[in-house]
Amino acid sequence: MSDNKTMHAKDLQKVSSKQTAGKILSKFWVYLFLIVMALIVLFPFYWMLISSVKSIDEYRLSVPTLFPKEILWSNYVEAFNQANLGRLFLNTLYVGLVSTLLSLVITVLSAFAFARLEFKGKNALFAALLATMMIPGELFTITNYATVNSLGWMDSYTVLIVPFLVSVFYIYLLRQNFLQIPNELYLAAKVDGTSDLKYLWKVMIPLALPTLISITILKMMGAWNSYVWPRLVANDEKYQLITNGLRNAFTDSTGDVNIPVQMAAVAIVSLPLFLVFIFLRKYIMKGVSRSGIKG
Amino acid sequence: MKILLQNLTKIFPGRGKKNTQEVIAVNDFTFEIPDGKLVGLLGPSGCGKSTTLYMISGLQKPSGGKIFFGEDDVTELSAENRGVGLVFQNYALYPHMTVKQNILFPLQNLRGEDKLPKDKMIERAYYAAKLVQIDDLMDRKPSELSGGQQQRVAIARALVKMPKVLLLDEPLSNLDARLRLQTREEIRRIQKDTGITTIFVTHDQEEAMSISDLIVVMKLGVVQQIGKPQDVYDDPTNLFVAKFLGTPPINVFTGKVSGGKLFIGDAPVLDVPGVEDREVTVGIRPEGFVLDENGPLVCGLNSVEVMGRDVSVVCRHENAVSPVIRAIIDADNKVAAGETVRYTLKPHKVFLFSKEDENRIRF
Amino acid sequence: MVESKHKWKAWLYLSPAIILLLVFTVWPIINTVRMAFLENYNSMGAVGGKIYAFGIGNFKQVLDYKLFLNCLGNTMLLTVLTVPLSTILALLIAVCLNAIKPLQRILQTIFFLPYVTNSIAIGMVFAAMFNMVGSAFGGENEIVVTAGIINNVIEFFGGEAVNWINAGSTYAANITVMVVYIVWNALPFKILILLGGLQSINKQYYDAARVDGTRRSRVFTKITVPLLSPMLAYVVITGFIGGFKEYSSIVGIFGEHMGPAGDAKRLNTMVGFIYDSLSTQQGRASAAALILFGIIFVVTMINLYVSKKKTHY
């Protein structure tokens, strides 16, 4: 059945040297492409950092310097004061921590009920919850704005925390995780007379810890990055969050702002996110690949 | 096309910080596979048989040694230029393509002077499909096929480009027992029909014995024995080969040779002329036992299993290495109920091995 | 599952979630539909006891409204430009990342970095990069002090500086900046998902293709892309949804006036439109939100339908 042509030694050599050359060449292009793209991705961060320590005069040179001639740390002090970052930072931290904590409690209880308890209408209720995930959040905002207004919550921490405590997606995520824990463990605990809550605390939560950490990080990042809702409901500076403060401090209708100071402020706001990323990279990437939602 | 493996060696470097030990997967393998034969590479997992197969395919590069296809040294040639057909253990059928598209795929890769016109390709695909009897399933997706059918598609895909060599990696391991029997006959038939030199890898000695022209028994990267299945079975070179081939497996005893006689326990069981006095390991094939009321080998009787044509006598002996020994005897012989059973031994079914290196001691 | 003796227990555990969802999710859905179908509804009037007639006037008004059409156009344009661009780029990067061993982890981390940023904050960095610094730009005798690093680069390669985002800049220039920023922002997530998908493809398919002498390009189009199609579909759908909800990246670059100085709201989007009318014109905002939901729903369905036809298994 085979009609092979015998290859001569020379041809063979040619083919094999060609294939090695091709391999090396293609690897070269792959690396070149990746490194160029990586530099493009990194460039804004680089530009932010070096601009943040330039003097305004140096920044405005018509031929830009790729590394500052003189490092001006005072930009950071100025940025911190000008944008009132200290207060904003504390506000954001407070809102983030409280809402993460409450949200975790609510999520764990609900996920446990959906994963382990039997009650009438469970599946219908769960399906209804999932269905709400399809609706864009902007649709809720209109009514929620009116609701918090009539509740008299405007300009308070409550208004920044309560409306977003329940995330159907996190309940779903955690329920899936709980379901993977063998039911026999629960039955054994019941036989031993362990209460639901104790079982939840001692068994389910430790086993679902990676998911809980992912949720925590995403929730904290959400607080750090939230912009639209705080802008709507917290006009009082006392309750503003960091992103709003940052945007407001440097919006100038003439377009003539001190960009180095602005970049310093941006760097201060970005730094905590990077730190969290460096230390919790694994959880973030895992959480993100499952959620697809920013914050 | 004949294939020559010359001092073929594959060393995997140690992986990671904890495991720096390098692994010699295949050690100095030399073997010439004659043209048009079906060869079984046989051994327990980790013996280097799959690595050998992948080196022949070109998917893995040898650390040392050479591979020749015919007269051509293909050692440095990568897989895409070797023209081999490879059937993977789990078939690796493209799940998004129909059977027909899967089989056509290798042909559509051909370029330049090898390129075929479309109708010729279809013709070849149907020819290959007919060969493995799946020509009525051409428009199905792999997920709609049974394991056996998927296996045939994989073979058809490997055959369609008329390879010089057909390589099969554990071709039957994913099939159920009945299908396995049927498919191995099929592989034998297809190989005979096409005359393509075929090498397959298996850990199942029965499978290898039943269809191969030649078998290669490997252990920890080292070839133990090469030969026709029956020859290897009848004349193993060491204890490992003897133990690896045959079902039920060979019965192993400790014994000693004294004055040209083999003793198991205190009983002289066989004349072994020309063997010097020493401690030995004795292997006796299950069919090597003959019932004899006055036989020298006395075993405690456990049970008798009647299996139609044959009878399997399960018994025990204090010098046996395993707790039970099995003898296969003709069903015509009646085993008398009782505490013990006595045998004489067929000399050509008894193998002696050195206690030290487990190599065969011939007599 | 266990038959709990105390059925109320499940409801007790669920009660915080359910109460909050009723107030902040279920009620808004009902209320949004209600407001959208009450002619010219606004809550100030409603509090004052005004009765609104039922009708589809809000939708008509919204669709006739030039500002809304402008928002719709911006949103569509940005989505149509950024989704294919970021998907193709992410696919290329993911495939290349999957093909290398040394440096893979560090490069993967770098490509993920834009994800852990604040889109407003980094938008301000992009704005600075595109910004021409001087006094108000555009007048005839104005002196530009620095043209911005992007323009510096363009000039370095012999091009001409462009007024990207300042007063007097063109719509095309503004959109270009937005596309660059949105793509930069969208890459990490897509690369993460696609790389995960690539890594889960059985290596044996590639071995089989190699043994069959398949060219690289053919492996890519005939094996990689089809086997990756569920991930690609996911990335495209989420990309479309994100695209139609674009808002804060524009705020990041242009500020809340959503346009270059002197041309506020030029780059406003559907979400921006909803926010603008949310405190005074709830009827109109609700209608716009429902339209947004409708578009997202339809696009998602089309995507699912197409990807079902294209992904075969």
User: First CA to last CA of chain B: what distance?
Assistant: 39 Å
Structural class of chain B: alpha+beta
Uncertain stretches of 5 or more adjacent residues of chain B: none
CATH superfamily of the largest domain in chain B: P-loop containing nucleotide triphosphate hydrolases
Radius of gyration of chain C: 25 Å
Oligomer state equals heterotrimer
Secondary structure layout plus pairing:
The complex is a heterotrimer of chains A (295), B (363) and C (313).
Chain A lengths: L8 H44 L3 H4 L14 H9 L2 H32 L5 H11 L4 H14 L6 H5 L6 H13 L2 H9 L4 H12 L1 H17 L2 H6 L8 H8 L9 H33 L4
Chain B lengths: L2 E10 L10 E11 L4 E5 L6 H9 L6 E6 L2 E2 L10 E4 L11 H10 L9 H14 L15 H13 L5 E5 L7 H18 L2 E6 L2 H7 L2 E6 L2 E6 L1 H6 L4 H6 L6 E8 L2 E4 L2 E5 L6 E7 L4 E3 L5 E11 L2 E7 L8 E6 L9 E6 L4 E5 L5 E2 L2
Parallel strand pairs in B: 3-8, 3-9, 6-7, 7-8
Antiparallel strand pairs in B: 1-2, 1-4, 4-5, 9-10, 11-12, 11-14, 12-13, 14-20, 15-19, 16-17, 16-19, 17-18, 20-21
Helix pairs in contact in B: 2-3, 2-4, 3-4
Chain C lengths: L6 H30 L6 H5 L9 H8 L1 H34 L4 H9 L6 H12 L2 E2 L9 E3 L2 H8 L14 H29 L3 H9 L4 H29 L3 H7 L15 H8 L4 H29 L3
Antiparallel strand pairs in C: 1-2
Helix pairs in contact in C: 1-13, 3-13, 4-8, 4-10, 4-12, 6-11, 8-10, 10-13, 12-13
